[in-house]
What we know:
Keywords: Membrane, Transmembrane, Transmembrane helix
Order of helices and strands: HH
Number of domains: 1
Amino acid sequence: MLNLIILVVFSAVTLFFVYFIAVNASYAKRSAKLEDSHCLVRAVGAIIMSVAVIVALWVEAGFVHFFG
């Protein structure tokens, strides 16, 4: 039962972060056109951090599934 709850919660969080990555990617694209380096760095940093969070969540889910 815990594995099912983790799967549902982590899937919802993953969908949120995928949306967040898409928003920041479009923001980065607009910032690149305007040559606004501060906003571009901020958007790329948010994308990198979001990917790191998604990877950490699914590593944890795999650990709980296989070793829990």
